[in-house]
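Re: the request from the purification team.
They wanted to know what the chain is likely to look like in 3D before they choose a buffer screen. I agreed to run a prediction and write the result into the notebook, where they can find it.
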Amino acid sequence: MTSSTMRHGYGCSGAVIYADKAFHGSLLRGSVAVWCEAKVCFNPKVKIAILQSIFEIERVTSRIMNERTAAERDAPIYGSFRELFTKGFELDTPTCVFMIGTHIAAVVLGIWLFAYAPSEWVWAATIWIVIQFFLGSGSTTLYTHRLITHKAAKHVSAPVHWFFCFFGQIFSVQGSVRRWSANHSLHHGVDRHGKKELDPYSATWFDGPIRNFVWSHTLSHMCNHPESEEYTRSHNAKRHWIIMLQDKWYGLLTTFWLFLFPMALGYALGGWYGFFGLMAGSMLGTILVQHNTWTVNSVTHMWGKTDGLNSSASNNYVWLGPLGEGNHHGDHHDYPRDYRNGFGVSGWLLDPTRYGILVLRACNLVRGLNRATEKEEAEIIAGREIAQVSSMTAFNREAAALKKQLDTRVMELKNDWIEALAHWETLKQESKLLQQAADRRDELAKEIAQARAHVNMRKNAFFAELEALRTQAMSFSA
């Protein structure tokens, strides 16, 4: 999660490269090229064949990527920060000036606030800090991350876009929604294709936790990465027109809400004390919400109890600062489109953001929430357990043979479990459809009865009127 205007690309001389993965990647690019030509000639059969080829290539590539061990996946690819600048990385000067300036302002104004400012403005600034912390963190987590980047809902209404794009998300100080989403899509793309050199804020680039933490938490947001085809494609992707509008005016919106508004409001309410008091609150709130959000890039990818299946992300079941993104991050990377951030009971208890999304759905502001089925959750959980056991090394030939037999039996039982769960879900869905049909049948029976009564009423009215007409005609003819 980043506020930088970074360009992300290649430069990975030390990466672990798989020949099969590179081969299938070249096939995929070739298929896409042919697909583009097929769009021009409008040949449906060719398009279908290309799509089937792409899906098969992605399936094989995904299987190859999942066969890597965690050590291979998370192996360092750079030796030092200095090496980055020999690979095409550059400091992003505007972002560096902004970040360093806001940090200095936060320290200076913070010291003045708590040491010399009147108590009423200490309280006013503290309230500002708390509001900005939760508003900014929640806006990134709920809107920019889940609803926009991962499309956790099939429909997001215009009022939601307006509120977060032109108010809430500005206080997160993470860059525009469009740019943030593009960078985060690159981050998750690594889980599929394994090109970790494209990750905007990888926590596994270096050997040692200190470098990885400093890079993923802060320095990555201050650098421009080398140009790449993937970066250009991700950042050129079109979004909702309100998001595109926010991207165009993001600089002015940030200037207004973070600087002009608190200074003007503070001065209007309390002169220069108010001016500097709310400005201190805005700068301290900015720093806190930024570092709180950045812990998702660093802490959740470096320390945890349950490792994810497809990435370095893990579940730590503790860190609640990002309002749900920090404690079940392994679950999120294994199924990113879920509107929830974690599986199971702990996922419900430790994810305030999902309640916010459910409130929006109850108000009909978002519709069609995506979530993993129980079968998909079971596959992920079983895969993690098997990966953990498979990482253990047998001590001798006999033990290796026994382990191989047990591995085979475990896989058979896992498949049986998944199949049984899939069957249960199918029956559950059928039961739901039957119940809906039964409810509809009762409604239909009532509608039929009402329609029949209406028929009889109109029939009787017709014959009554016909009889009146006949009587009248007879009286005239007599």
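For the purification team: Residues 375-446 form one domain.
Please add any questions underneath this entry.
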